[in-house]
Amino acid sequence: MTLAPDLLRSLPKVSLHDHLDGGLRPATVFGIATEIGHPLPADSPEALGRWFAESANSGSLVRYLETFDHTIAVMQTPEHLRRVAREFVEDLAADGVVYGEARWAPEQHTRGGLSEADAVEAVRDGLTEGMLVCADRGHRLQVQQLVTSMRHVEPSTRIAELALAYRDQGVAGFDIAGAEDGFPAERFLPAFQLLKQASFPYTIHAGEAAGVDSIWGALQVCSANRIGHGVRIVEDITSNDDGSVTLGRLAAYVRDQQIPLELCPSSNAQTGAVASLDAHPFPLLDGLGFVVTVNSDNQLMSGTTLSHEMGVLVDHLGYDLDGLERITLNAAASAFLPHPLREELIDDVILPGFEAARG
């Protein structure tokens, strides 16, 4: 079946895995880069957008991550960070998102003299401006920060402490991101222990560029609340000759403990975590009872939106409106929000929105 793009955009959406520095508008990157004299591999916003998409389709996570050199370069002042954050919210609202989490690494935004705290405050202010602008336009949404450490740097608790310092100012959680293979989450165990002791939630990138062992470390050593990507958990699931499947110990644990998986279909195919969109294990995991959620990962690099990712599920993986509602409810229930607010989001926004879509 297929669902019209306008219908998909109208659906209320929850975005859990979306990188702020991967969601800039091409025109914004081009404009700020021109202003600050940063060289770009294209001579117009349109050509730049194509360059990002072509680079992201290389099939290599390393090449994919290299595209961030240009977005991070234009996010080094309070004004530019606020602008990027404000536009990020506006773009989510235009796509029907009602709750979002913007993850980014403050340690990458200090080249111009900002402290990491200055950077967090600039993004905080930009997200707030965006939410106010959208509310004035009649679309209310909440967007919070996930403060991230880069996993390839020397591990410390510094960024975790920063996240805790701003936990009552729009920072909803913590993450580690970047080159996954060779940099296990366990390196940051003291940071995760600090967060756990402070009763603060966190997600961990795992099971994308690295396999099942990375998911095991993120969960069984570092006690992650959610798994960023996690698509390679299928390597712990065996297909039997009679058509049934057998879950390994870790896969069974992820399912039975209902650990949310932040799956990103287009990105997973682009980085080689899955062979193709048609081969994505999203419906397999969903059918087995895993808590799957759909996400855009990097809107600029993947040339995508959350509506587009829903369209991928429909066009490539056989989803219908009921299936999209189910995974949206998964996402809302997995948000780093207080439980009463998650219930309110579900009862007052998600369920009525999908009911309206059914006509």
Automatic annotation (TrEMBL):
The answer on whether this UniProt entry bears the keyword Nuclease reads: no
**Classification via InterPro entries:** A_deaminase_dom, Ado/ade_deaminase, Metal_Hydrolase
Name its GO BP terms in alphabetical order.
adenosine catabolic process; hypoxanthine salvage; inosine biosynthetic process; nucleotide metabolic process
**What Enzyme Commission number does this protein have?**
3.5.4.4
This entry's Gene Ontology molecular function terms read: adenosine deaminase activity; metal ion binding
What UniProt keywords are attached to this protein's entry?
Hydrolase, Metal-binding, Nucleotide metabolism, Zinc
Q: Which residues form the Adenosine deaminase domain?
A: 12-350
- Any GO CC annotation of this UniProt entry: cytosol
The cofactors required by this protein are: Zn(2+)
Pfam families, per this entry? A_deaminase (PF00962)
Q: Which PANTHER family match?
A: ADENOSINE DEAMINASE
Q: Which NCBIfam families does the record match to this protein?
A: aden_deam (TIGR01430), PRK09358.1-2 (NF006847)
Family indicated by similarity: Belongs to the metallo-dependent hydrolases superfamily. Adenosine and AMP deaminases family.
| Name recorded for this polypeptide | adenosine deaminase
Q: Which source organism does the UniProt entry give?
A: Friedmanniella luteola
